[in-house]
Amino acid sequence: MSLTAEKISPLPTHIAIVPDGNGRWAEKRGLPRLNGHREGVLNMLRMIQYINEYPIKYVTFYGFSTENRNRPEPEVKGLFKLVEHFVDEQLGKIHEKNIKIRHIGRMSGLPESLQNAITKAVSLTANNTGMNLGIAWNYGGRAEIVDAINKWAADPNRPQTLDEKSFASYLYTGDMPEVDLLIRTAEKRLSNFLLWQSAYSEIYFTDVLWPDFDKAEIDKALTEYSKRNRRFGGL
Q1: Which band of pLDDT confidence, cut at 50, 70 and 90, is reported for residue 4?
Q2: Which of 52, 66, 122, 156 has the fewest CB atoms within 10 Å, measured from its CB?
Q3: 57 with 130: CB under 8 angstroms?
Q4: Domain limits at 82?
Q5: Helices (H) and strands (E) in the chain, counts
Q6: CA distance 100 to 205
């Protein structure tokens, strides 16, 4: 376990991360934007390995939003290929660490090869009992809420009256706890990420671009979280 982990209390149960700034990181260095995305994927692996040293059960990364499809086609296709390569190269290492991978988002609309890679990752790690690693790919918070309503409507055993708890069970994250800490690099907005699940999360914004977000930055965010008084609307 990280030595820092022993000094920070309380720790969040569920961290959500928006790893933004990859393209700008590359542009600042005179590199193609896709180089930044490649470095961002590598940093995601580094951060997964480091966060796994903490007793934190759930980590969810924003990988690709439904709105990201509006980017230039070569960049979108390049991102898809990066994820496939990441699965091929790193899945075994993640599996060895007993991490369970979960896909959060819509599979429809993704290239077949990418769907196969995601399915392979989820299937291989399904019985792992360590950290739950959520990858929000082809994800949108509003789309998730719409999909949850449609899922409820199609459920023959659905409750006739929905409350917040029963509705949440139809979300992609239905069996996961709500987000305690949401970390956003490079920008200061939610960008349609886990809107329902983050209703009472603590939010940590940093100007650091994602490829430069390292162990020290994670520790800063966790330390800041430990100092906050979470009242959930109470006193």
Answers
A1: low
A2: 156
A3: no
A4: 4-141+178-227
A5: 7, 6
A6: 27
Give the pLDDT confidence of 69-110 residue by residue, as tens digits. Answer: 788 888 888 888 888 888 888 899 999 999 999 999 999 888
Enzyme catalytic residues: 20, 68
Residue-wise pLDDT tens digits, 98-142: 999 999 999 988 889 999 999 999 999 999 999 999 999 999 999
Q: Cα dihedral angle (201, 202, 205, 210), rounded to 10 degrees?
A: -60
Q: Is the pTM of this model over 0.90?
A: yes
Domain of residue 215, CATH code: 3.40.1180.10
Tally of domains within the chain: 1
Structural domain contains residue 164: no
Residues 166, 159 contacting (CB under 8 angstroms):
yes
**Cβ neighbour number for residue 194 with a 10 Å cutoff:** 27
Hey, how many other C-beta atoms are within 10 angstroms of the C-beta on 177?
13
